[in-house]
Amino acid sequence: MSRFYPDAPRAGVSVLCHREGRALLIKRGKAPYKDHWSLPGGLIELGETLQEAAARELLEETGVTAALGAPVETFDSIQRDDNGKVATHFILTVFCAAYLSGTPSAGDDAAELDWLLPEELAGRPTTPGTPERIRRLLDAVLARNIPQRQ
């Protein structure tokens, strides 16, 4: 099934990998949202669990592994064309995970990557809702409201 003008929503994952108050973001190398900063992630493959997909996508796009726990949120990402027809529809499940290992390097669909503080997102093009999501989830991590696997 195509990502563009699909006949059903596509299921995907994203990971807010954090280290010392910074989030690991990628600059998307492909549409949708080419050249926008986003959390690493992608589509779930057949037979793959949410957590397996999140770990795989994080590693493929960044070269990093993280302590993945339970998902922290799920949301719809729906974009319509100028005629109002659904151009893309993704159901995304987000994981928040502390960095474990790996040398960050942009790979797969990522054109670039960077460890950013939430305030460093101002002025950068981002995927919809990304800055707010990062602030909210990092605040929860600092307040210890999101359990982190050790």
UniProtKB/TrEMBL annotation:
GO terms for molecular function: hydrolase activity. CDD domains: NUDIX_ADPRase. It comes from Roseibium sediminicola. Its cofactor is Mg(2+). Pfam families: NUDIX. The keyword Repressor does not apply. Belongs to the Nudix hydrolase family. Keywords: Hydrolase. The keyword Hydrolase applies. This is NUDIX hydrolase. Residues 8-139 form the Nudix hydrolase domain.
